[in-house]
Design brief:
single chain, alpha/beta, 10-stranded mixed beta sheet, globular
Length: 244
């Protein structure tokens, strides 16, 4: 089965307080995104990775060089909008969505996700992170969406933290937002995603609910919390240096 990797890297990273894209901030003498790019070099792909750029895109392209396929997200209108920006560059039957500010996702985990997805001829597969609690180093994951399952263990919804009941906030299975999609199926679904939310943006999490409405099984794999650590603040960057 054919697949491509799409890395979302268009954001400014306002909370970082820097005037460069956050994916270019130094993490042990390399840009944050370089750690992810190094890890995925041996993941089977039909093309070189697609990188969705936006804020100071020329600087990102100049820093990372010509070995990647760049597409531009002209307005930062959410993760679903970023994926739609890459549609013309996606030619494989399936693609994986990764994040340039999430540098620790490992090749071994991605290979497992690819195997799960392809062996089930899935339309959508995803990672879920399980944490012991939301204290100390795990406080980072408190604001992640929660995975809601039925009594049989099937994913039935992803509940954004701000919409969770107090009981749902205690769920320790969280959504890192890393998906593998069947390309044809997901771009049909993306036409149905709207921006009727507090941020007025288009989110990939809505695809899960659309998949359920479409009668699709959502296949999932657990992933270590360290692999889905994202860098959004200076404190996150400092902790990432310790994780290295």
């Amino acid at each position: 089965m054919s697949q491509q990797i799409v890395i979302l890297a268009a954001g400014k990273g306002t909370r970082m307080g820097a005037d460069v894209p956050k994916v270019l901030l130094p993490l042990h003498d390399e840009p944050v995104i370089a750690h992810l790019l190094n890890e995925i070099k041996t993941v089977p792909q039909d093309t070189t990775p697609i990188i969705v750029v936006g804020f100071k895109k020329e600087l990102v392209e100049e820093t990372l060089g010509p070995d990647y396929l760049y597409v531009t997200q002209f307005d930062q209108n959410g993760t679903a909008h970023a994926v739609m920006s890459a549609q013309s560059a996606i030619t494989a039957k399936n693609f994986i969505v990764l994040y340039g500010d999430m540098p620790f996702t490992r090749q071994e985990s991605l290979l497992k996700l690819i195997e799960l997805h392809n062996s089930n001829h899935a339309m959508i597969s995803m990672f879920t992170g399980v944490v012991p609690n939301f204290e100390h180093q795990y406080e980072h994951f408190l604001g992640f969406g929660r995975i809601i399952r039925d009594p049989q263990g099937h994913i039935v919804k992803i509940r954004e933290y701000k919409d969770c009941t107090e009981e749902e906030k205690q769920i320790t299975e969280v959504n890192p937002g890393i998906y593998m999609f069947n390309s044809e199926w997901v771009f049909e679904q993306l036409k149905r995603v709207n921006s009727e939310n507090a941020q007025h943006e288009f989110y990939l999490t809505d695809i899960v609910e659309l998949a359920i409405q479409d009668g699709q099984t959502i296949y999932s794999l657990p992933i270590a919390a360290e692999e889905i650590y994202g860098i959004n603040t200076p404190a996150h960057l400092e902790f990432a240096r310790k994780l290295i």
